[in-house]
Amino acid sequence: MTATRTPGVPVVEDGVLVSTSPATGDEVGRFPVASAAEVDAAVARARTASSWWASLGFDGRRERLLRYRSLLANRLAELADLVHREGGKPAAEAVVEVTAAIDHVAWAARHARRVLGPRRVRGSLLVAEHAAYLEYQPYGVIGVIGPWNYPVFTPMGSIAYALAAGNAVVFKPSEYTPAVGQWLVDRFAEVVPEQPVLQIVHGTGEVGGALCRSGVGKLAFTGSTATGKKVMAACAETLTPVLVECGGKDAMIVEADADLDAAVSACLWGGMTNAGQTCIGIERVYVAERVYDDFLGKLVERAAKLTVSDGEDADFGPITMPGQIDVIRRHIDDAIARGGRAVLGGPDAVQPPYVKPTILVDVPEDSVAVREETFGPTLTVTRVRDGDEAVERANASVYGLGGSVFSRSRGMELARRLRSGMTAVNGALSFAGVPSLPFGGIGDSGFGRIHGEDGLREFARAKAITRRRMPSPLPAMSFDRSPKAVAMIARAVRLVHGRSR
Ligand code: NAD
Asked: Which positions are catalytic residues (predicted)?
């Protein structure tokens, strides 16, 4: 049976997932959909592979992961072309995405021993006869469920760190980008051919649900908030721990003392790169009234010059998931129906599969264009008194993923006050390109962290060990203790902790 195809919409034909380009409708690849039993079998294989992988130790894994990152670097153009064909983003944009992912693989490989390696830690007065040790042990198998918008960078933020921590991974890529997922897994098998340390299972949400219920040690999910809640509910059945990276409604704050040209440039890129289909994309802009007109004029002038097509020189391409076009249209229509104005673009900018740059002003704060994730090349620009009012408005959101502040004198202060997991000062999205920084949100944007030291610890269990190293001078945690020992302990605790400073 052949289902009717809409460009970019994945279809399942006779148990095979067919992936097509959102711009041209050309077929990109076919992949067998995994049954629940096949997901379980993959996890069982991964469990065996994880013991072998863990036995390589930090150095063995580091060497393999660094070889993987070299392979990715040497075949970057091939991967960028596939990302372009399957997801629609310009190949140049895909090069930036893959480069960031490669940096993460290298960082996780190089720092896993330092962050997770066994170490001796300070003992204590109460059990002075024991030495204390801390180590971080892998979970065994990590299930990774990914989205389509950054099909390399996003899942790799979990996969690379999970592997470096000593786990095997079973990866369920988005049904919109299975070919990119398959490519990443096949290339890993070239550098690690001995065991299925990184496996892939294809399919829609049902297959993701099966992975949640498969008995993995931990599930790392990246996608929408609505799906994140379903993933948590499924994982709750078996008390499987979860890492949940969800959507956002990130704000940019432009203070009166900002470098306006730099702010405009960052705002455009932060809001419209990848056609606005970026979890940490700027969607709301709050501008101090003293510079509002200047900023808006420059923003509209530059945004009008952005090129949108499937061509090589385009600034951004089509909307990857055709269904998202309805969401974008609804947000624009609602903003205008409620008194907002489109100073660029607007309803006519929606030309499937493309949406042209759209800048909305005077949009009420309680409209969907300000409250819900739009995931399109649209920005709401709002006049505020100053940075303080901007922070207040920016924080009045259920989301809290990233954000940006432009100010010469108050950047760090305002950044700290933004209710979000990450903030760029005098830039946009820059934190995503720094492997040593943690990445993740608060509120409806999820919880847990990928990247950096926190990202490595996310994929390991802290294990505490004490080892008796000598006979106890003063047995306290024992029925062998004497009244004299208790008196000495009480005296010692006064000596050590009795002072107020
Ligand atoms: P989505 O929630 O529709 O799908 C994400 C993944 O979950 C897909 O692989 C999908 O097949 C799977 N899935 C769907 N239903 C499931 C279920 N019931 N159980 C288990 N898995 C299920 O999201 P999307 O449209 O692919 O991605 C876009 C969203 O992802 C946006 O909201 C974006 O902000 C967010 N995102 C967040 C980050 C981040 O790091 N915070 C990064 C990229 C994207």
From this structure: 245
Cβ(274) – ligand 1 distance below 6 Å: no
Please state the rounded mean pLDDT for residues 148-160: 98
Q: What is the pLDDT of residue 500?
A: 87
**More confident site: 488 or 278:** 278
Residue 172 CA to ligand 1 centre (angstroms): 11
**C-beta 278 within 6 A of ligand 1:** no
Dihedral sign from CA coordinates of 483, 486, 490, 492: positive
- Find out whether 447 and 114 touch, Cβ atoms under 8 Å: no
Measured between alpha carbons, how far is residue 53 from residues 59, 101, 107, 223, 270 in Å?
11, 21, 18, 28, 38
Would you state the structure tokens that stand for residue 305, as one six-digit string?
């010059």
Q: Are strands 168-172 and 141-145 parallel, antiparallel or unpaired?
A: parallel
Question: What local confidence, expressed as pLDDT, does residue 312 receive?
Answer: 85
Cα 226 to ligand 1 centroid, rounded to whole Å: 9
Whether 152 is in the pocket of ligand 1, judged by its Cβ within 6 Å, is no
- 353 prior amide bond cis, ω within 30: yes
Measured between alpha carbons, how far is residue 433 from residues 99, 103, 107, 122, 188 in Å? 9, 8, 11, 35, 22
Q: Which domains does the chain have, with CATH numbers?
A: 42-245+452-460 (3.40.605.10), 250-433 (3.40.309.10), 475-501 (no CATH)
Please report the atom of ligand 1 found closest to the CA of residue 148. Answer: 26
Average pLDDT score over residue span 173-186: 98
3-class state of residue 13 by DSSP: strand
Catalytic residue among 245, 255, 373, 453: 245
Question: How confident is the prediction for the chain on average, in pLDDT?
Answer: 96
C-alpha 301 to ligand 1 mean position (Å): 34
Whether 283 is catalytic: no
Looking from the CA of residue 401, the nearest atom of ligand 1 is 41
Q: Is the pLDDT of residue 85 over 60?
A: yes
Nearest CA to ligand 1 atom 9: 174
**In the block, which residue shows the tokens 């055709």?**
322
Structure tokens at 254: 């432009």
pLDDT (mean) for 322-344: 97
Best mutation site among 224, 242, 319, 429 for ligand 1 pocket (most ligand atoms within 8 Å of CB): 224
Task: Report how far ligand 1's centroid is from the alpha carbon of 158 (Å).
Answer: 14
**pLDDT (0 to 100) of residue 2:** 47
DSSP 88-144: ---HHHHHHHHHHHHHHHHHHHHHHHHHHS-EEE---STTTTEEEEEEEEE-SEEEE
The confidence band for 4, taking pLDDT boundaries of 50, 70 and 90, is: low
